[in-house]
Design goal:
With 134 residues, this protein is mainly alpha-helical. It contains six helices and no strands. The mean pLDDT is 84.
Length: 134
C-alpha cells in the first residue's frame, strides 16, 4: 500500500473512552486523568506509605479506558472519599498547614488539589458526555 494514497474513510472504532469522546467531553476526561496523576505524584513524593499512588493511577486508567458514560462519576465519588479522608486524618491535615516542611507541604497540597480537580472535571465530563444513540 502506498502511503500517499488517500484514506478510504474506514477506520476502526475507538476502543477507549478518551478515543470515543469529542470536544469538551474529551478535554474533561484528559484533565481528569491528569489531575489523578498529579494526586498520585503528590501522594508518592514524600515517600511510600501505602497503595494510594497505585489506586490513583488505577482511577486514571479507568477514566481513560472505560466507555461507560457514568464511570467518571464513580471515580469522582471515590476520589471525594479520599479527599474527605485526607482532610479528616489528623496526621495528613497537619502536613497541609506546616510550610516549614516544604516537601510534605507541597506534596500534600498537590494531592488534595489533584483530588478536588479530578472530582470537578469528572462531573463535568459526565455532564458533557453524549448520550448513546439508539
Amino acid at each position: 500500500m502506498n502511503t500517499d494514497d488517500p484514506p478510504t474513510g474506514r477506520t476502526a472504532p475507538a476502543r477507549t473512552a478518551i478515543g470515543r469522546a469529542h470536544g469538551r467531553h474529551r478535554v474533561f476526561l484528559i484533565v481528569t486523568c491528569a489531575a489523578l496523576v498529579l494526586a498520585a505524584i503528590g501522594d508518592e513524593a514524600p515517600g511510600y506509605d501505602g497503595p494510594g499512588p497505585f489506586i490513583d493511577l488505577a482511577f486514571a486508567v479507568t477514566v481513560a479506558l472505560v466507555r461507560w458514560r457514568f464511570a467518571p462519576l464513580v471515580i469522582a465519588a471515590m476520589t471525594a472519599f479520599f479527599l474527605f479522608g485526607g482532610l479528616a486524618a489528623g496526621g495528613f491535615a497537619h502536613r497541609l498547614i506546616q510550610p516549614d516542611r516544604a516537601l510534605d507541604f507541597t506534596a500534600g497540597w498537590l494531592q488534595m488539589l489533584g483530588f478536588a480537580a479530578a472530582v470537578v472535571f469528572a462531573v463535568a465530563s459526565t455532564v458533557h458526555a453524549r448520550r448513546p444513540s439508539r
